[in-house]
Amino acid sequence: MKKVIILILLSILLFACNPTAYIEHMTEDWIAITDIDSSNLEMICKHQGESVFFVPDLSNTTEELILLDWGNKIELMNLDGTNRHAIIDTLGDISNFSVDRTKMLMTNNGDIYMANVDGTDLVNLTNTPDIGENFPAFSSDGEKIIFQQKSEGNAAIAVMYLNSNYIQVVYEFD
Fold it and tell me: How far apart are CA 110 and CA 108, in angstroms?
């Protein structure tokens, strides 16, 4: 059955016996998975602000894994919360996935990176320190990415052809 990820905010209120005492309010966020019909709710791990995604297990394509994006590193774990480990520990900030969810686009310091969802084959696609690139997205055929470029106050929409790394500006604006 199809699983979904949910983030749960658990609140614990502790009351003192004295009615004039203050209320201490503590919260914890959790990552949980459930079947699509809301049955079989399983609390997986505490959520600490990372973005959470289902991705295919590239070594066993009939299974899925949970991908955690911390903004500065990316981790994978099994659906039961076990085998949690960093796959990319130098950058994060996932922007987009390929249609088949096997590749991901990330941005860091104005450059666009691509990697497999298991962290392998990480490559800096743009490597342009004088131009800032943001908001990359795959084309539906997975052969191109579109993104925003900014340089010296000018901005543009550009397309990169992944088979040649050729970048074509398709629209410029101020």
Answer: 5
